[in-house]
């Protein structure tokens, strides 16, 4: 057919081209390849380490000695109790006239002991182990004594400085006396609780977004659920009961208090967790308290479980439809209660898990972590114990990491577990002097090797930790918040920190268990820390 005009020819060609464009014969672009799987920086190999235990005997700390033998009647408050003639006592003139010191004691028989001392700014009345000092000299000397009464005895502790061994550290001699007679004696190293190693306040991009004081008791833990933070507290002596404090945290720079709760005769609350519309609180007196948080800002008490006789629940862990409540007592060796929480407001007790070792000096359950059908329980001196809990009605003890120590200081206190390099790796932290972070390969619970360590000052210890991806966040008491890169577990590496502990904070004491104590990293871009004196601290997630 002849095309009758240029216009018709143009339309015809356009239709031809349009037909070609719609044809199934058009070449298709290849699909982009899927992204490669993330590369694990660790191949799972390591060299097992020998565990030196928590407290490693340093030998005599100072060249001073006690001048009298044990059992001798002597005035423990007298400087003549010690011979410091071989000491550099002139170096003591460099000390500040105030400070908080954690004091590592080494008995002459080479076992550990511990006290702490606080002299407030301006030279006010100081304390030793939170008891009043009867002698207090921190100007040109380091001489402290404290006296306290027991049911059938009067005890004294005396410290006399020998020399400043390095900035922030004092060594010297000590004695414990009972009813006017000298008992144990030895040497000590006192570390002042300023920021260690000349550190700045923070590193690694950690920024403090807000600080909110908590009025009920002494705050110890926090749990974050969406836009609300639930802070629990233990009593502050006889002055303030503990309880629960709720904050609206939509604006992380300005948390808003929405409610405070305590119950008559029941306010030692140490841990919190949520599941659905239920908030669980660990009570020292009545087990697990259950609150309805349908209104997140306004918890309503529902019940306590399991009910019955008084029960001390210290820590909590929730995984799926299970709640693990760890109880140090009144059971003789502690136990872990396992609840079904498929109906969150109506927990049902399924079982009580106990450790088989009852020979350790303090075989008390303290904390737990559930991961892949296993429960990892921190059992103080009995060690880090692993249970198979796939069958809730028939839990099985699989093995334990125990401490080869005869000095009774190792204390398994907290932990977190994850998978690295195809292996199951646990991060276990201790409490009290010399304790630190252990990295353990728990793939085979019958053979758990130590593969890494992280330790700061001998006089400080860890309270709690959170593992998020390849980072470990630690509430490290006097050392504040520590963030470790654990992508290569045998080589934990600090990448950020924030020193929360300050000597002059109101209500700061000389207690060994002071500073950063509770921590949560819920994945909302923030880190939530509870400091015993400062309250709720909110940081950006570095």
Structure write-up:
The protein has 542 residues and is mostly beta strands. Helices cover 3% and strands 44% of the residues. The protein has an 8-stranded antiparallel β-barrel with strand order 3-4-5-6-7-8-9-10. The protein has a 5-stranded antiparallel β-sheet with strand order 11-36-35-34-33, with no helix packed on it. The radius of gyration is 29 Å and the shape is globular. The model is unreliable at 1-24 (pLDDT under 50).
Q: What general outline do the C-alpha atoms trace?
A: globular
Strand content of the residues, in percent? 35-45%
Count of beta strands: 39
Largest sheet: 8 strands, antiparallel, barrel
> What is Rg?
29 Å
- Widest sheet: strand ordering: 3-4-5-6-7-8-9-10
Average pLDDT rating: 92
């Amino acid at each position: 057919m002849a095309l009758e005009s240029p216009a018709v020819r143009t339309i015809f060609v356009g239709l031809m081209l349009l037909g070609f464009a719609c044809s199934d014969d058009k070449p298709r672009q290849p699909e982009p390849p899927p992204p490669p799987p993330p590369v694990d920086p660790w191949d799972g190999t390591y060299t097992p380490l020998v565990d030196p235990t928590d407290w490693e005997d340093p030998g005599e700390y100072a060249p001073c000695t006690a001048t009298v033998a044990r059992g001798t009647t002597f005035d423990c408050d007298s400087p003549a109790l010690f011979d410091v003639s071989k000491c550099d006592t002139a170096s003591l003139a460099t000390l500040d006239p105030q400070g908080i010191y954690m004091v590592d004691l080494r008995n002459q028989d080479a076992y550990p002991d511990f006290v702490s001392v606080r002299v407030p700014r301006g030279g006010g009345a100081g304390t030793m182990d939170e008891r009043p000092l009867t002698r207090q000299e921190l100007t040109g000397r380091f001489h402290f004594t404290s006296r306290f009464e027991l049911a059938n005895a009067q005890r004294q502790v005396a410290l006399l400085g020998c020399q400043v061994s390095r900035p922030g550290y004092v060594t010297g001699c000590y004695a414990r006396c009972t009813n006017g007679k000298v008992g144990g004696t030895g040497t000590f190293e006192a570390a002042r609780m300023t920021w260690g190693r000349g550190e700045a306040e923070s590193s690694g991009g950690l920024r403090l977004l807000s600080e909110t004081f908590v009025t009920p008791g002494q705050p110890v833990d926090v749990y974050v659920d969406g836009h609300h933070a639930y802070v629990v507290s233990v009593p502050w002596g006889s002055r303030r009961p503990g309880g629960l404090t709720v904050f609206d945290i939509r604006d992380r720079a300005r948390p808003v208090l929405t409610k405070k709760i305590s119950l008559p005769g029941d306010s030692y609350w140490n841990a919190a967790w949520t599941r659905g519309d239920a908030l669980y609180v660990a009570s020292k007196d009545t087990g697990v308290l259950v609150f309805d948080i349908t209104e997140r800002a306004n918890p309503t008490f529902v019940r306590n479980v399991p009910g019955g006789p008084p029960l001390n629940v210290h820590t909590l862990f929730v995984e799926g439809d299970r709640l693990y409540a760890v109880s140090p007592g009144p059971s003789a060796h502690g136990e872990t209660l396992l609840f079904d929480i498929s109906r969150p407001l109506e927990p049902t007790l399924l079982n009580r898990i106990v450790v088989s070792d009852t020979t350790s000096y303090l075989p008390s359950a303290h904390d737990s972590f559930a991961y892949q059908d296993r429960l990892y329980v921190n059992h103080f001196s009995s060690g880090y114990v692993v249970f198979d809990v796939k069958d809730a009605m028939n839990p099985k003890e699989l093995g334990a990491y125990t401490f080869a120590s005869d000095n009774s200081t190792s204390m398994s206190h907290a932990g977190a577990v994850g998978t690295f390099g195809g292996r199951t790796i646990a991060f276990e932290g201790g409490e009290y002097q010399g304790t630190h972070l252990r990295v353990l390969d728990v793939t085979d619970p019958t053979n758990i090797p130590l593969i890494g360590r992280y330790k700061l000052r001998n006089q400080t210890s860890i309270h709690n930790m959170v593992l998020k991806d390849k980072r470990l966040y630690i509430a490290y008491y006097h050392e504040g918040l520590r963030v470790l890169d654990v992508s290569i577990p045998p080589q934990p590496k600090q990448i950020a920190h924030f020193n929360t502990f300050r000597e002059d904070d109101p209500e700061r004491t000389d207690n060994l268990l002071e500073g950063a104590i509770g921590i949560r990293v819920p994945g909302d871009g923030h880190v939530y820390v509870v400091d015993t004196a400062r309250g709720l601290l909110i940081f950006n997630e570095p």
